[in-house]
């Protein structure tokens, strides 16, 4: 359901919302002041592990496949190492570094301004489509392109079209080819379809994607297989498998962030005169966590703490667990829903929504309470039509990107 | 010694294997010095020079060319509580590749947290970041026939690099060195300087201990070094001392003879247009011209601006430009995207700007 005015929907008064905002600001300040040596050691250690996994995976596949007796274990181990390396790099390292979570270290090698992640999408485009569009306009219909990524119908307020019947298939394709779906994300397929996209900007973006995507493909499907000589086919298959594993995993985790039942959608009326505290409140209501142990959280880039990540996108991810306890306390105090559950339940709900919304609304029942008001027209907005950018979402810069591709 | 060029090429070919990273990003995990992506160095030794000054012997990693000119300084970044802090220090060693090390000499300043850390807290083995050597406070090659060095306190560090180089190359010209320090104990390199002046009779070494004998009165130059007007003068020391010296030389119409080391920034590019800078958190504003850097303007307005090298190397001063446009004074590049990070020490306003601080 879509909410026109969060505060009206909630039981909170103006003062209570402002008070909540102040308490969240206090948490932010506390974490900012306590960042130090241990946090720096955490990200450096993780980068060492991830690059170690990459090297181990490549070497295991290249050397281990040469002899018949070691081939099968080498393929299994090598593929696993590579998949783990890609997952860690994309989720806990790349995504979080590009959010500026580690900029405070003042380390030019771990900085949002020049990090290029190990996937097909150019970092600059990610920082626009994700840090800005998605994090500032989280779950606002017509503003946040992450609601279904322009491919899936994920909110009942989005108009049904017969093409939506294919959703289960599109979903499976998106999951398998997730890297490439993400790569095209900032192009904003919907605005291209409607002819609203500036062709010059589109050309620039396509060129950027082409350059980076080509390097990724050449690495995994040409160079490393070639280095394996006669075993090129084995290595190519293993590389492909590791990419698919990463794609599926990233897809599941990302779909658990905003599509489980408790995560609400909003309308553009909510954006009007939205205060910082109301923005905080929208982040809590629009995101969903999942539960798990420390290993699961690291492997999912700490996105199991999606609510905390949305409240404080630029605080170091290793602190989200600690922040989460404080946020849950606040949610209890102000009686705000805090959506969480086991991973399989959260993903199950997202999948159910994908399937249900492939048919017209009248055929299925909503899993969420009806919105207080019907929603209005939702055309995609361009940056010029969106309100100005919030500063905690960091920068994205044309000049810094594209240096390497 | 093999040329470094083939290695560059090998590493570039390696890009295909490591894209989007560089091979160096992996190699540095084997040995922290095996990366030329960022210049690094390992602290090999910390040599106590005086009670409050120490020499750091640093082994630079890949990409260091050992071709600094004596007198130049180097930016050094040290991680303190997880955060890199940058400062610049003169290189005190002569440029010799064979040694595989460079040295910088640091005096712990009473209010300088980083300098105190460098002097007392740095363990051998620590990895530091380096910036390429810079600075115009250098001797021409060949050196002038007659030289006068006017040095105060830790200002000796670039001068010792020059003297060591002249000594090594055995090209010591006619040199007068006037070195002021509060007490003999606080005089860095005192023994070495005495030794050098014994070895080279054309090197005259004047010590002045200001705690007992008072500051150098420039009128005394006629007595200390009667032919000072004929000498190329290199002065390095505290700001007030340099101000007095440059005034003295101007009075005698000799500013061409005088070379000063002030760690200042050379800004070649075009200026901005200027405008009103607004600092968002405090709401303070200041009118600036197009030549004043955002950093200088902020300091003038009483904002606690972060800064490091003040020359665009270290990025410590980077702030978010909320709105408006700034121009990089080094090359004229303009930055004006909403919420773009900008280096305040090398940019000036192009029209009205708002900064997030």
Features:
heterodimer; A: 405 residues; mainly alpha; 15 helices; 2 strands; globular; disordered C terminus; B: 357 residues; alpha/beta; Elongation Factor Tu (Ef-tu), domain 3; Rossmann fold; Ubiquitin-like (UB roll); 3 domains; 6-stranded antiparallel beta sheet; 5-stranded parallel beta sheet; 19 strands
Q: Tally the beta strands of chain A.
A: 2
Coarse structural class of chain B = alpha/beta
Assembly status: heterodimer
The percent range for helix content of chain B is 10-25%
Contiguous helical run count of chain A = 15
Strand order of the largest sheet of chain B: 4-3-6-1-2-5
Sequence stretches where pLDDT stays below 50 over 5 or more residues of chain B: 264-269
Radius of gyration of chain A: 22 Å
Largest sheet of chain B: 6 strands, antiparallel
Order of helices and strands of chain A: EHHHHHHHHHHEHHHHH
Instruction: Return the average pLDDT of chain B rounded to an integer.
Output: 87
Question: Which structural category do the helix and sheet elements of chain A fall into?
Answer: mainly alpha
Count of discrete alpha- or pi-helical segments spanning 4 or more residues of chain B: 9
Percent in strands of chain A: under 5%
Q: Tell me the name of the CATH class of the largest domain in chain B.
A: Alpha Beta
Helix share, percent of chain A? 55-70%
CATH topology (level 3) name of the largest domain in chain B = Rossmann fold
Shape of chain A: globular
- What is the approximate shape of chain B? globular
Give a count of the beta strands of chain B, DSSP E runs of length 2 or more: 19
Average pLDDT taken over every residue of chain A: 90
């Amino acid at each position: 359901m879509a909410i026109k005015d969060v505060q009206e929907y909630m039981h909170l008064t103006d003062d209570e919302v402002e008070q909540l905002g102040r308490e969240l600001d206090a948490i932010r300040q506390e974490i900012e002041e306590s960042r130090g040596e241990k946090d720096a050691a955490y990200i450096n250690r993780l980068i060492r592990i991830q690059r170690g996994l990459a090297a181990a995976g490549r070497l295991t596949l290249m050397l281990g496949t040469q002899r018949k007796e070691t081939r099968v274990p080498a393929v299994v181990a090598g593929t696993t190492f590579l998949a783990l390396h890609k997952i860690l790099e994309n989720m806990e390292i790349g995504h979080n570094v590009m959010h500026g979570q580690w900029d405070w270290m003042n380390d030019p090698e771990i900085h949002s301004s020049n990090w290029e992640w190990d996937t097909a999408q150019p970092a600059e485009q990610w920082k626009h489509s994700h840090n800005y569009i998605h994090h500032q306009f989280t779950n606002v219909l017509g503003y946040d392109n992450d609601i279904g990524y322009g491919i899936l119908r994920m909110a009942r307020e989005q108009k049904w079209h017969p093409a939506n019947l294919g959703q289960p298939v599109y979903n499976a394709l998106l999951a398998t080819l997730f890297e490439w779906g993400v790569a095209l994300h900032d192009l904003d397929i919907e605005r291209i379809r409607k002819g609203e996209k500036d062709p010059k900007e589109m050309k620039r973006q396509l060129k950027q994607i082409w350059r980076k995507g080509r390097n990724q493909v050449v690495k995994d499907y040409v160079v490393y297989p070639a280095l394996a000589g006669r075993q090129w086919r084995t290595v190519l298959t293993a590389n492909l498998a590791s990419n698919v594993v990463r794609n599926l995993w990233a897809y599941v985790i990302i779909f658990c962030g905003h599509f489980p039942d408790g995560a609400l959608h909003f309308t553009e009326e909510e954006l009007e005169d939205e205060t910082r505290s109301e923005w905080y409140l929208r982040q809590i209501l629009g995101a969903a966590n999942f539960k798990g142990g420390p290993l699961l959280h690291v492997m999912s880039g700490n996105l199991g703490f999606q609510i905390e990540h949305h409240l404080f996108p630029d605080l170091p991810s290793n602190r989200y667990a600690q922040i989460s306890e404080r946020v849950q306390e606040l949610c209890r105090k102000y009686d705000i829903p805090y959506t969480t559950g086991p991973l399989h339940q959260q993903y199950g709900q997202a999948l159910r929504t994908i399937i249900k919304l492939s048919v017209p609304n009248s055929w299925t029942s909503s899993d969420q309470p009806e919105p207080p008001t019907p929603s209005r027209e939702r055309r995609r907005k361009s940056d010029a039509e969106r309100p100005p950018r919030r500063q905690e979402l960091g920068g994205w810069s044309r000049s810094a990107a594209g240096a390497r591709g | 010694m093999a040329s470094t060029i083939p290695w560059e090429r090998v590493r570039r070919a390696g890009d295909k294997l490591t894209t989007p990273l560089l091979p160096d990003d992996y190699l540095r995990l084997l040995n922290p010095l095996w990366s030329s992506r960022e210049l690094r160095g390992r602290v090999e030794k910390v040599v106590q020079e005086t009670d409050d000054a120490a020499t750091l012997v640093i082994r630079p990693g890949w990409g260091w060319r050992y071709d600094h000119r004596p007198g130049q300084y180097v930016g050094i970044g040290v991680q303190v509580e997880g955060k890199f802090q940058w400062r610049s220090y003169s290189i005190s060693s002569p440029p010799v590749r064979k040694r595989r090390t460079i040295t910088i000499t640091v005096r712990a300043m009473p209010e300088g947290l980083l300098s105190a850390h460098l002097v007392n807290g740095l363990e051998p083995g620590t990895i530091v970041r380096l910036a390429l050597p810079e600075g115009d406070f250098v001797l021409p090659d060949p050196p002038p026939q007659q030289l006068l060095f006017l040095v105060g306190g830790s200002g000796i560090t670039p001068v010792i690099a020059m003297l060591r180089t002249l000594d090594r190359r055995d090209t010591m010209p006619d040199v007068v060195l006037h070195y002021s320090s509060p007490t003999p104990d606080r005089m860095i390199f005192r023994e070495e300087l005495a030794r050098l002046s014994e070895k080279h009779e054309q090197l005259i070494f004047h010590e002045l201990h200001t705690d007992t004998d008072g500051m150098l009165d420039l009128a005394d130059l006629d007595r200390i070094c009667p032919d000072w007007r004929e000498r190329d003068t290199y002065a390095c020391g505290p700001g007030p001392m340099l101000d007095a010296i440059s005034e003295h030389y101007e009075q005698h119409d000799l500013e061409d003879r005088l070379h000063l080391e002030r760690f200042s920034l050379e800004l070649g590019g075009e200026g901005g247009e200027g405008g009103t800078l607004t600092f968002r958190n405090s709401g303070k504003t200041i009118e600036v011209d197009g030549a004043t850097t955002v950093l200088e303007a902020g300091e003038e307005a009483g904002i606690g601006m972060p800064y490091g090298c003040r020359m665009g190397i270290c990025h410590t001063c980077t702030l978010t430009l909320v709105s408006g446009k700034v121009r990089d004074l080094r090359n004229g590049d303009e930055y004006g995207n909403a919420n773009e990070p900008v280096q305040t020490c090398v940019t000036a306003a192009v029209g009205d700007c708002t900064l997030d601080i």
